[in-house]
UniProtKB/TrEMBL annotation:
Residues 4-177 form the NIDO domain. The gene is MUC4. This is Mucin-4. Coiled coil: none annotated. SMART domains: AMOP, EGF, EGF_CA, NIDO, VWD. It comes from Stylophora pistillata (Smooth cauliflower coral). Keywords: Disulfide bond, EGF-like domain, Membrane, Repeat, Transmembrane, Transmembrane helix.
Length: 1187
């Protein structure tokens, strides 16, 4: 709550009808480039005003400026119609630190009560006096109330030096942050900075549906080292650099099931973590976002909105094709055939050469009628050629024609040149994955290579070669290079000569790297005649019987046993074929699908709940359902072949439901809905929410929904009767009882009691009844003053209220003593001064007397005044407050206090030539400076008024100034009383010095008055504008002064005492001055040297110019209501031209975006320095106007 000036304000006529009062606001945000100048200025001012520097320079990201202009009191008299309060508030934050500034222009506050200032004492107990301060809302631990807050004296705050060491400026820090954003705020900031993922995730590889698919789909690599977290990761980034992470359950109940969302699910990554160049960005963006939102805060849903999980809905397994043994082929469409060519052949060509796989064969052991694969080479686009060759120990690898140490690899892939990823799944096995998603696995088995090609669906209808034409139709797999198709029923011999040999590579198309002395022809043998399948025969019955027993009818096994005359070769062919077929079949087994995609379950307390989950299997496998988690007590489970149901009676206990469905091949699907608990009372209705911010269980597995309450109820669960009085911040008139109405009365369900005595209205708004407006004047004989709820009588000057509190009695100002120099004559309502014989009235001061014939020379012994009396004889006289001594020459101070010649009510303090009055505790001095008025209960004595702004001196007066440096006081302590004491002490010192010296006034300046009775008063002592000022020492100030001659002494009324004489006066009376001010004089210097017409001040002590600069940001509080600042973007962006304000009174204005406060006839600041207001065009004259 920020309250720059919270007061009862007229919000009707002044705003709506007359347009006299206005409120403006503007929001500046770093999201708006046009706000940059204001944000920079706010940052600069904040850094300067901080009493304790922050760890790093403050940089504002959001600023709210609110300006209140010409606010009138709620019930104002006609003679106050032109009095309005103008002030401004600025709220500044960077998301970590927050500050506010209250600023009040000089004379900007013109009322604190709806009455003229002279009668404020009658409103000291009034209800609803303005409050100034702030409260952080943390149970009162961080708050601040201005010293004058809640009193009529708060109006003077615009003339008080604030805690920013500038008049009318206050600066507060509103939080106690340690300098770090909360994890929630960091998550929110991260969320706002991220792009919409929908434009990028559609190009990512969909997640495999189960862990088994992720392991066998070579487009993904599974990292087992993150256990117990098990995730697969796409080998290559998308074209935009994104990566796909897919995570799977490691719980035994749901092992291998894909996890989706914030319950451990994987996510899309803005930066592909396996790409070296993107790893740093992945850490700073993706990892940081997960840490801030999911680990350090409860906003994991925000993370997944920017990094969504894939649910495998678009996943399609890659198609496998393999070749092995005495070359046998399984095409991409599943066609199985044998081709025993000897040479190098194109296995697969995709998209007319974008990708190509070639394989080389050699003679197998035996009688030379069989061949096996001995090498393979693959290339995609601009990637390097990867070549794998069979050797005596296993395999060797070439990449780009260079030997590659594949033995250093593991089952985790390594990306080479960003175009191909390679790995070693196991010994004598090599995997290559290309960026298109095609993978090739080559393995050495029993002296031969087996090759497995896996192609994603994007290559369907775009392949040719010995692995066939992939279009789900095996009938056209024997497509030749010239476009003809061999029948799928063709014999092995026809396949050999009319299909297989036609795919032999030539010198232009070969991908192989040859050793010295080798070439394409080294491996090519077109005349080789193998054994054909239809000519299958064994050299002897023993081998045949062994083969038949080992092969169990497997044709390929029998063929390889016969062609190589080695049963173990056939057995290896059978085993490898069985493994590949099993893995391919298992890869194509999709897990069950939940038909009921239940993401949330709503549970209402004391109501019956039933949840049914239905699933189906894409492969028509048999399904088994299981329910795990923290089940409700007495829950009932019911299973069918394709569903499971859970029923229970709703309570407020924590529950978790985890549904697992398993097919007969072990593939599992997992579903864990969020539980939304509805626990509303009194017929409240739960509000559906995707957020878990109200969870009372510390987990986003269960949310407690917010309640929408019926009229008259409130609380988290609508469990409480709505207190409309509290909800409306006590809407009744101050002091009027607010009565809350029972439900179904809503937020407006309150009633105000009767207005206080002396007021009229409905209790919500009460107007004071003006008894003085009646024809009888309230019965007062002179002045009737309307007061809150009543009235009081008062008297004009010179009269005192009678004991009957109605009549007025004349005050005899001449008793016991007057302020006349000689004689006093009482009159009705006043008094008249006259002079003794030989004296006449001083035309410049009717209380003072001047001799008719002053002495014309300095040769006399009078201490004060010398005049020519009877017979022109020189005689002596004294100034007011002094008594002529027995010697007839000297003057002695009259102690008015000791002789009962004072008029003080309470305490009297004698001074040279006069006296001062003060009051005992519980009283304060009235405006007449002699009468004491009792303080109200809890009322504190008003703080001293600020010192007035110095007059503008003439050039002659300015050049006669001296500078006095005091130690033991800061600027805020220099008040009007202090300045009056200081001026009085200086005046007395100058009077005494000049009374004893004959050099104060030169002959040319003398007129009729003799020097010996010249009286200097505080009226002749002046400060230069801009003084006092601070030095580098916080408790040291400098005061620049000059002293005018009294009227009639100098020929020029603006002439001033010579600076050298003034310097001597202060030096000689230094001790007296220090005693009067309770300070120490540390230096005395002349302000301006004679050698220069505009010399700068001396540099002793040095001034802190940075502190003396006046940068102001104006703050305020709501008029008539508490200003509760909610940090939200106000959405105001239109710009309008501002116009100067034309009324004579001082108001906030704008000039070209400067932070200044102007009036029509000049600057508020007498030095024309920068003013107090943040007043650019948007802040004061555009955007939204609140009435």
């Amino acid at each position: 709550m920020l309250a720059p000036y919270w007061s009862l304000t007229d919000t009707d006529d002044s705003f709506v009808i007359q347009g006299f009062s206005k409120v403006y606001y503007h929001v500046y945000s770093d999201s708006d480039p046009s706000s940059t100048p204001m944000l920079k200025r706010a940052s600069s001012d904040t850094n300067k005003l901080l009493s304790t520097p922050l760890p790093t320079a403050f940089r504002a990201s959001w600023v709210l400026v609110v300006t209140w202009k010409n606010l009138r009191p709620y019930q104002y008299p006609v003679n106050m119609a032109n009095q309005g309060n103008t002030f401004q508030l600025v709220l500044i934050t960077d998301g970590v630190y927050s500050f506010t500034m209250y600023n009040y222009p000089n004379n900007g506050l013109q009322w604190s009560a709806p009455i003229q200032r002279m009668y404020y004492r009658y409103y000291s107990k009034a209800r609803g006096l303005p409050v100034v301060g702030w409260n952080a809302g943390d149970k009162g631990e961080r708050k601040y109330n201005m010293p004058r807050s809640g009193t009529v004296n708060i109006e003077t705050i615009d003339g008080i030096r604030g805690n920013a060491d500038m008049v009318g400026k206050w600066f507060f820090r509103l939080e106690d942050s340690l300098g770090k954003l909360s994890a929630r705020q960091e998550c929110i900031d991260w969320f706002k900075a991220q792009p919409d993922p929908r434009f990028y995730t559609e190009y990512l590889e969909p997640c495999p549906c189960i862990l088994r698919q992720a392991r066998w789909d070579e487009r993904f690599t599974v990292n087992w080292r993150d256990w117990p977290r098990m995730c697969g990761y796409a080998q290559f980034p998308s074209s935009a650099g994104w990566g796909q992470e897919c995570c799977y359950s490691t719980n035994w109940q749901s092992w291998g099931a894909l996890l989706v969302g914030s319950h451990g699910g994987g996510s899309a990554h803005r930066y592909h973590k396996l790409t070296k160049e993107l790893r740093a960005k992945y850490d700073s963006s993706d990892v940081r976002g997960y840490q801030k939102c999911c680990v350090n805060s409860d906003l994991c849903d925000l993370y997944y909105r920017r990094r969504p999980s894939d649910d495998c809905g678009d996943y399609v397994v890659p198609e496998w094709s393999w070749l092995w043994g005495d070359p046998h082929f399984v095409t991409l469409d599943g066609k199985n055939y044998t081709f025993n060519g000897l040479g190098e052949y194109i296995m697969a060509d995709a998209r007319n050469g974008l990708f190509q796989l070639q394989a080389r064969t050699k003679l197998a052991k035996g009688d030379g009628t069989a061949t096996v694969f001995s090498a393979a080479a693959a290339k995609e686009g601009n990637s390097s050629v990867v070549q794998v060759e069979l050797n005596d120990t296993g395999i060797s690898v070439l990449v780009g024609g260079e030997s590659f140490n594949y033995t250093s690899l593991s089952n985790e892939s390594v990306t080479l040149n960003g175009s191909v990823a390679v790995a070693k799944p196991d010994n004598n096995s090599f995997l290559m994955v290309f960026s298109s998603g095609i993978s090739v696995t080559v393995k050495a088995v029993s002296g031969a290579l087996s090759i497995v090609l896996a192609a994603p669906k994007s290559f369907k209808n775009q392949t040719k070669g010995l692995l066939g034409t992939w279009n789900d139709d095996p009938e056209d797999d024997f497509l030749t290079p010239n476009g003809t198709v061999l029948p799928s029923s063709a014999k092995s011999k026809d396949i050999h000569y009319n299909f297989g040999l036609l795919w032999q590579v030539d010198n232009k198309s070969t991908l192989f790297t040859y050793k010295p002395g080798e070439s394409l022809k080294t491996f090519e043998n077109t005349s080789f005649v193998p054994m054909f399948l239809e000519d299958l025969s064994f050299p002897n019955d023993t081998l045949r019987k062994q083969a038949e027993e080992a092969c169990q009818g497997d044709v390929n096994c029998l063929f390889d046993s016969a062609s190589t005359k080695d049963v173990s070769m056939g057995a290896s062919t059978k085993a490898l074929s069985s493994t590949l077929e099993e893995e391919s079949s298992s890869l194509k087994n999709y897990p069950p699908l939940f038909v009921t995609r239940l993401s949330q379950v709503n549970v209402t307390v004391n109501q019956s709940i039933s949840v049914t989950v239905v699933a189906e299997d894409p492969n028509n496998d048999t399904l088994v359902f299981s329910v795990f988690g923290v089940l409700p007590r007495a829950a009932i489970l019911q299973n069918t072949s394709n569903s499971v149901s859970v029923s229970w009676n709703g309570t407020n206990e924590q529950i978790e439901l985890e549904f697992v469905v398993t097919d007969d091949q072990g593939a599992k699907a997992f579903l864990r809905p969020i539980i939304n608990l509805c626990a509303c009372h009194n017929d409240g209705v739960c509000l559906q929410s995707a957020s878990n911010k109200n969870s009372t269980y510390g987990s986003n597995k269960m949310n407690v929904l917010e309640c929408g309450c019926l009229n008259g109820y409130t609380g988290t669960f609508c469990e409480s009767d709505l207190d409309a009085c509290e909800a409306n911040l006590n809407p009744c008139y101050p002091g009027v009882k607010c009565i809350d109405l029972p439900p179904p009365a809503n937020i407006s369900g309150y009633k105000c009691g009767p207005c206080p005595s002396g007021f009229t209205g409905d209790g919500s708004k009460c107007r004071d009844f003006d008894e003085c407006s009646l024809g009888s004047n309230g019965g007062c004989s002179q002045v009737c003053i309307n007061t809150p709820g009543s009235f009081t009588c008062d008297c004009t000057k010179g009269y005192l209220l009678n004991i009957d509190q109605k009549k007025c009695d004349d005050v005899d100002e001449c008793i016991p003593v007057s302020d006349c120099m000689h004689k006093c004559e009482n009159t009705n309502g006043g008094y008249h001064c006259s002079c003794d014989n030989f004296f006449k009235m001083d035309p410049s001061n009717p209380k003072n007397c001047l001799p008719d014939s002053p002495c014309q020379n300095d040769k006399h012994s009078c201490q004060h005044i010398c005049y020519l009396g009877l017979n022109k004889v020189q005689q002596c006289a004294c100034r007011r407050g002094y008594l002529l001594g027995g010697d007839g020459n000297t003057c002695k101070d009259i102690d008015e206090c000791a002789t009962n010649k004072d008029r003080c009510n309470h305490k009297c303090s004698n001074t040279e030539g006069s006296y001062t009055c003060s009051c005992v505790d519980g009283f304060r001095l009235d405006a007449d400076n002699v009468t004491c008025i009792g303080l109200d209960k809890d009322e504190k004595p008003p703080p001293p008024a600020p010192a007035p702004t110095p007059r503008i001196p003439s050039l002659i007066e300015k050049r006669q100034a001296i500078i006095i440096a005091f130690k033991g006081m800061n600027l805020s302590q220099w008040t009007l009383p202090v300045e009056q004491v200081f001026k009085g002490a200086v005046a007395d010192s100058v009077t005494n010095f000049c009374g004893e010296s004959k050099h104060c006034i030169t002959t040319r300046l003398r007129k009729r008055r003799a020097l010996d009775y010249v009286l200097f008063t505080s009226d002749q002592v002046h400060l230069l504008p801009g003084y006092p000022e601070r030095t580098t020492d916080l408790f040291q100030i400098r005061v620049a002064i000059y002293v005018q001659f009294p009227p009639g002494v100098a020929t020029d009324s603006a002439s001033a005492l010579d600076k050298n004489i003034l310097l001597t006066v202060i030096k000689t009376s230094r001790e007296k001055l220090e005693k009067a001010l309770n300070m120490t004089v540390v230096s005395l210097t002349i302000a301006f040297l004679d050698s220069s017409t505009e010399s700068s001040f001396t540099e002793t002590p040095k001034i802190d110019h940075e502190i003396s600069k006046r940068y102001f940001i104006i703050g305020g509080a709501t008029a008539g209501a508490i200003l509760i600042i909610i940090l939200c973007v106000l959405g105001c962006r239109r710009n309008c031209n501002s116009k100067r304000v034309t009324p004579e009174k001082r108001v906030a204005n704008n000039e070209d975006g400067d932070f200044e406060l102007h009036r029509i006839k000049g600057h508020f600041d007498d030095h024309q320095e920068e003013g107090k207001f943040y007043t650019n065009k948007q802040a004061l004259h555009t955007d939204k106007e609140a009435i």
